[in-house]
Design goal:
Layout (H helix, E strand, L loop, with lengths): L4 H5 L2 E9 L2 E2 L2 H15 L7 H9 L6 E8 L3 E6 L5 H6 L1 E10 L14 H12 L4 E6 L4 E4 L3 E6 L2 E4 L10 H9 L2 E3 L4 H4 L4 E6 L3 E8 L2 E2 L4 H13 L3
InterPro entries: Aminotrans_IV (IPR001544), Aminotrans_IV_CS (IPR018300), Aminotransferase-like (IPR036038), BCAT-like_C (IPR043132), BCAT-like_N (IPR043131), Class-IV_PLP-Dep_Aminotrnsfr (IPR050571)
Cofactor: pyridoxal 5'-phosphate
Keywords: Aminotransferase, Pyridoxal phosphate, Transferase
Length: about 240
């Protein structure tokens, strides 16, 4: 590993991918986002789908989490087990509200870079307090995203999610939900989510995870979210 600007200043990009039965789920979508971030950072380090597939083929495990990190002088691959259990999907996440605010005017918010300190520290603090995730509002007090996931809400079977410009990463699973279901992107305040019937979060590793509570707001159901989660698992299991 070279001590470049990725190490010293977080000027690098990463992607966390789900490998299911030796198949990299949403491979091309991840590569597209990664390349967009590398272009934003001015990093010319190449990465091909074949490199990733060759790396996956050499692993002993069939299903795992693959992390790719790239900076000006480094290209690093690593694997780990998927930490999400069946019991988590049966009970749903309990989410803390962060005191930190997302700066929707920062271009770094919209890219998955190695400059990820706010997310990691807030996530660790939430887990120490017994939560599974943490939700950020932006500087205008609008719902943005979680530390490692995008967030959605359900009312009268209509799905809602914050607009990208409210300061959130355009997630791969977020895009999947937008394409697979009728979703309204809109500004959402804390008072708005108090009246929602369900909530769920998404990312490439957990897929679709029901949410049982955010702060003091407890949602009356997680049934629709569970159905969506099951349907997603079926879609990647062919």
């Amino acid at each position: 590993m070279q001590l470049d600007e990725g190490f010293y200043f977080g000027l690098g990009a990463f992607e966390t991918l789900c490998v299911h039965q030796k198949k990299i789920v949403f491979l091309e979508e991840h590569l597209k986002r990664l390349r967009k971030t590398l272009l934003f950072l001015g990093i010319k380090q190449p990465l091909t789908s074949q490199e990733l597939m060759d790396y996956v083929s050499k692993q002993d495990k069939e299903s795992f989490v693959l992390k790719v990190a790239i900076s000006a002088e480094n290209k690093l691959f690593s694997i780990r087990d998927n930490p999400y259990t069946k019991e988590m999907y049966e009970t749903g996440f309990d989410i803390k509200l962060s005191d930190n605010r997302r700066n929707a005017y920062s271009p770094f918010v919209y890219h998955k870079t190695l400059n990820y300190g706010d997310n990691i520290m807030e996530n660790r603090l939430a887990k120490k307090e017994g939560y599974q995730e943490v939700l950020f509002l932006n500087t205008e007090g609008l719902v943005s995203e979680c530390s490692t996931a995008n967030i959605f809400f359900v009312k009268n079977k209509q799905i809602y999610t914050p607009k990208i410009e409210n300061g959130l990463l355009p997630g791969i699973l977020r895009e999947y939900v937008l394409k697979a279901y009728s979703v309204i992107e809109k500004d959402l305040s804390l008072s708005d989510i108090e009246h929602m019937e369900e909530a769920f979060v998404t990312n490439s590793v957990l897929g679709i995870m029901p949410v049982c509570r955010i702060g003091q707001t407890k949602f009356p159901s997680i049934k629709e979210s569970q159905k969506m989660a099951e349907k997603y698992v079926e879609s990647i299991s062919y």
